[in-house]
Amino acid sequence: MIFCEEINTQLLIINSFIRKFNEATIINNENYIIDDMSWERWLKVNYVKNNRIPFSIVFSPYEFKIEIDQAYEIIDIDFSDFIKNKKEIQKILDDLYSCFIIIKKYGNFITVIKFIDNNNQSVRKIKFFKFPSKLRFVLLETKYPPIRHF
After folding, report:
1. Predicted local distance difference test score (pLDDT) of residue 13
2. How far apart are CA 94 and CA 2, in angstroms?
3. Strand order in the sheet with 100-106
């Protein structure tokens, strides 16, 4: 597959992160399914594996995104900031691969994602709001094991 230079740069960096978990590159990995692709300028892949956290990565010359569940902007950065934010991107991928993940959905409007390490310590908590809501009850809570165990 041929992509523009910006997408190739993003793929190269993301592939270097996931290789440390003994995963094949995104394009050659059976767990990464191409969801949407526009020749050279747009690529969206979904990570799909039984009993593991589903997430998506969007590559384009203009932005880079990681989406988890219904939280569509866990990372949403301009391509110009991609290299500067490489460490934060790596940290989120590390957390996705190595932490237990608990997702709490408060209706369709609020999603809270907690990353729990092997010592049962919270290492990251992300709140995603579609728009302000005053819902106070949990409709759904899902816990996923790490993608990779060490």
Report:
1. 92
2. 27
3. 122-129, 110-116, 100-106, 140-144
